[in-house]
Each structure stands twice: as C-alpha cells, then as structure tokens.
Design a protein that fits this description.
single chain, alpha+beta, three-stranded antiparallel sheet
Amino acid sequence: AEEAQQLLDIGIRLGLDPILDIELMWIVQEYQSAPLPDDWRAFEGPDNRMHYLNDRLRYDVITNPIEPRFKKLVEVIKESKRNETPLDEVTVLELIDPIERAADVTEMAEYQGIDLRKEAHHLWIAKLAVLETMPEGWEETIDPSGRTLYRNVAAGVSTDEHPADDYFKALLQRERAKPLPYTSIELK
C-alpha cells in the first residue's frame, strides 16, 4: 500500500491524474528507474527527506534533478493527446534518455552524410542513431591502435561499422526519397 501511494504521489508531482491518466503511469516507472545525471547522488537528509547533491557544484536540493525532464514528458504526451496530433517520438526518447552531448548528434549526422544546412529535417535520424543501444550479442571494443570495433560475440567476428548502421542508412535513404518538407525560409 505504501509503494502504491508513493507511485501515485510521484505521478501527481509529474502532472498525471491517477484516474484520467492511468495509461501514462508507465512514465512513473521510467522516472523511478532513470539514473541521476553525472555528478549527482541521492541521500537521506537530516530532515528524513531525500536530498540530491551535485558533487561538482556542491549544490544540495530536495527535488530530483531529473524531475523537470519527466514533467516535460508528461506535458508533451498530454498535449499531443489533447490536440490529437502525432507524438514526436524523438522528443519523447530524448526526455526519457537524454543525449548528454549535442556534439554527438552533429558527429553522427556527419558520419551518416547528413548535410546539416540542407538536411536539418533529417537530423532526427542522427538523434535516433545516437540513442540506439548495442544489439544483443554485440560489444564495442577498442583495438590497440585506438580504433572502435564492434564484435559479434557468438560469431566471433568484428567490424568497424556499428551493427545498426545498415538500418539507419536505409532509413535515411527512404526519408531522402520523400518530398522536402515545407519551410518558410530559404536556406543557402
């Protein structure tokens, strides 16, 4: 009963109505299992409440530093439902599992051959690729020269291409075949 009440309390804090938003309670579970950002740790303070300390900045707060991100996730999903508009899956992914370095997305876009000035509308593919986890049975290794290799443990083979590269290449090719999105400005 105490655990159920805790879930309800978190849901309410995130902006969920326990009755009307029951199908969104998965967000509470994601919130509970999400790791704290780097340099943060949780501890029980002398007031018997959870405190969150940023070790680098020596900043002590009682609000979990990931809470604003999950409040935004609730807001985005509820707004999408209310307006009956499609949900931006990349935004949802970033709110659940944010990209730590924006430069990672830029580097991935360059690796995939996406022209950031002319194909900004394809940047979401680079974001998805950055968020992609290693497929089961694969591991990332570094060879003696410092080069990243991907090894299929079961097959005993290694390659310098990520096992999901073909999927993202095909996705980018399919998206490039679609008509360009309408823009109100001309990029040169």
